[in-house]
Amino acid sequence: EVYLTGEGYFAVTASPDRPFVVHANHAMVKVLGTRFNVRAWQQDQRVTVAVEEGTVSLGSEGAVEEGVVIDRGMVSTLPGTGRPSEPRAADIGKHLGWMRNEAFFDSAPLSEVLHQLERWHRVRIVLEDTTVKEDQLTLHIQAKSLDNALELISALTGLGCERSADTVRLRPATGGAN
After folding, report:
1. Which of 69, 70, 67 shows the shortest CA–CA distance to 90?
2. 4 touches 13 (CB < 8 A)
3. Local structure of 18: helix, strand or coil
4. Is 22 exposed, middle or buried (0-12, 13-18, 19+ CB in 10 A)?
5. What angle do CA 168, 174, 178 make, to 5 degrees?
6. Which residues lie closer than 8 Å to 95 by C-beta, 6 or more apart?
7. N- to C-terminal Cα distance for the chain?
8. Counting C-beta atoms within 10 Å of the first and last residue's C-beta, which end of the chain has fewer, N or C?
9. d(CA 33, CA 56)
10. What's the whole-model pTM score?
């Protein structure tokens, strides 16, 4: 059994006598032999499991019987409360992008994109207009350049960007340069 906060990739050898269990936030993932990714950042309040090979089950701690079985090439998400989503086909490579210092966002809230940038670059990002934090973005970013990512986000959202030391401020643009 392991306890995870954040994101982790697991390659587990089958051992029917000793199931492998990942506890992540409020979720429990059980496997016998597979390769899969678990994303469980505390600020997101959800757990996403992407299966590259094999099969896993995903359910809430204490209510695993209400969980779902996720097969190869499928993804399921367990929100902060409730039941996991029905597994759906997904590009698993995109879910594993973090292992290549890439992140793919498909209709993700701006706040989720900003959290990823904060983790990668060890900066604090202040969103001065919080009404846009749930705006949905679809983009691909790489960890190597914070400036490139901020430029892309500014272009997509219309927000201006100001950097100082380890803090980035995003605010409504005022007609000046970003």
Report:
1. 70
2. no
3. coil
4. buried
5. 45
6. 37, 39, 48, 50, 75, 104
7. 47
8. N
9. 8
10. 0.78
pLDDT at 16: 76
Strand arrangement of the beta sheet that strand 55-60 belongs to? 2-4, 20-24, 27-31, 55-60, 63-71
Quote the DSSP letter at residue 64. E
Q: Are 80 and 26 in contact (CB under 8 A)?
A: yes
In this predicted model, what pLDDT tens digit does every residue of 48-65 receive, in sequence order? Answer: 999 999 999 999 887 766
Cβ 177 vs Cβ 161: under 8 Å: no
Residue 138, token pair as written in the block? 């679809």
Least confident residue range of 13-27, 45-59, 84-98, 123-137:
13-27
